[in-house]
Amino acid sequence: MENKISKKIENEMRQENGVCVACCITLGKQPHIGHLMLLSIAEQMRSGLGSELPIVLINNNTGPRSAGTLLKIALDFDLSVANAAMAMNNGLIEVDEIVGAYRGRLDSSERVSEVEKMVAGQALDIFSVVSKETQEVLRLSGYKVEIASGSYLLNASRKLIDEVGGDWKGTGYTPLVDGKRVVLLEKSGDLTSTGVLFAAVNSLSEMTKSGTVVVVDSQPEVSDANFALSVVATKFKCVQVMGAGVGIGGAVASGTGGEAVTIKEARKLFNEVRPGGNLKKAVLYFTLNNQLSFARNSIDLKDSFYNFDSGDEVMSRLVDSWDKLVEFNQKLVGEVENLALRVGSCSLTNTDKSKRFLEYLQSKASGLLAGEAERVLAESKRVVGGVRQNYYFNQLKTIMNCLDGIVMLREDQFLTIGKMLQFCIDRSGI
Amino acid sequence: METINKTTHLEDNERLIELAYAEKKGREAFGSNPYTCYVAINSPKPDLSLLSESLLSELAENYDKAFVWARSWDKTIVSISPTQPLGCFLMSTDDIKGKMFVPVMTNLVADQSRLLQGLSRAGVGQLVLNNQETTVDAFMICYFHMLNELVWDLTLDYSNGKDPTEESYLLALIAVKSGGFEVSIASTEDLLKISKNSSRASLRIYGSKINKYVPQVMGAVVTNK
Predict the structure, then answer these.
(1) Potential cystine with B221: which of A180, A297, B97, B150 (Cβ 3.0-4.6 Å)?
(2) Which of B41, B86, B107 has the most A C-beta neighbours within 10 Å, making it the best mutation to test the interface with A?
(3) What is the ipTM of this complex?
(4) Quick one: pLDDT at residue A258?
């Protein structure tokens, strides 16, 4: 019992150390507009949970696709696999060459294990050059993102997988069994994608000293890794939030197929039309207001995406989203200025909604301003009218709806409302 | 001359393997198995004696289904389960509960003699397993297929030349369960020799190739009846 209590206290202390929001992308090719939607959900989480850390984008550079790309580069440049890996790690191979090799990667099923062990064992980043370019593009687009090499994160926690193996240690098979579920971290001597993520999230928690790691990704491996971490990790918790993507004409789009423009291209196109605009905020506002489409016969958020008729429509709607955000901000400023004119000696309202709002203002404000992490996470799972919900954006709209019915309010009430509005704007990420 | 002899010898062995593969002994030639037997283990050092007992009991308790399962080549999955620590469970292949059994896939060479420690030394027949280096899960696949082969061979004996029936299958299960059996290991070469030299011996070939560490010739059984 005592042990459980001390663990609980330890967890609470760790949670004060902050939240780390992460998502995973394979940077064998330049990320596209679908990844921007994913990053927007991550940004919603980062803002909503009040994280001061940048979003950590885990660069998936281990596994079969990476191995296939490495083998293709070795073939194209007539290098040994080890030398090709080193050249890629050191940024000596151009982005276009990497992307070409990724698209034409070799079916490496026979050598995946060998290549994966080399890349992960030496913590090499074979996609370093794409990673560097992506970091810069995202920075210029307004994102606070840190790209972390998956092989580095894996290498840092690889021993943990051996340690949790129990009787199975050394057999090349690492199951985690607990009550109702079995999760495999390793089979036939190769780490599973769950095992790779398990190690990466553990490393992230240790490196950032975060009490909570939120992984924005719809893949089932995330749920399995969360479960595995919940069995072995006592110092932090891991939470899965479903990701997002784009579809063109009802089918999920990819950068490989060329349907989805790259973030680099999107930024260029956006800046041509709205030179003073902020692409990050345009995409984020888009995800706050637009309806999702779902894969056939599903209403599950994990099967959702933002659908467009064409690639051109994506850009025009993001530009439109930016214009609407500017309009929304102007409206908000106007309402606050208007409210300032109604500051007086007492409070007076002409609707029940506004009356209740002022009556419970202090208690509502203290809860809201303290940060409501559980509500942020819970609301992110909800879809209402096809739109993915955001706790603070909903609170913002609710407060704005109550302002009209206020005839007069005291100065302290005005200041509290101002604080609440500012807090909701910050936590919505807009 | 020596080369010709070697080639002939290899051809003979290949022919034996082909014959063993083609020999269905009253079992289905095609189609999937409507049942699956999950062998749940909880460590890489499972107690084969206990598991054998569990298998024979499970099959005897459900002998009608087990007969169909055995006639369709006894699909067996060595697995771990969050709810079943150790034992054998025969289920419909479509049963959703089967998803709770996760296949074991190791890559460490198993200590075969240690795995066989404590097993009986005599009985109604002999299982001779291939001693080729392999993993614990692959070795167990061989072991259980050979044990089922012994039961099937006895089923044929009890059928007296007629088509095997559920009843003759049950009689065979009871005989193996009560009489016990002997287990040993031998090289592929010796397994083929056993098959060549005894009319009461049969080889079992691994056809599915799902587990890459299972030897092509899993073993031989010889009935003592």
Answers:
(1) B150
(2) B107
(3) 0.89
(4) 62
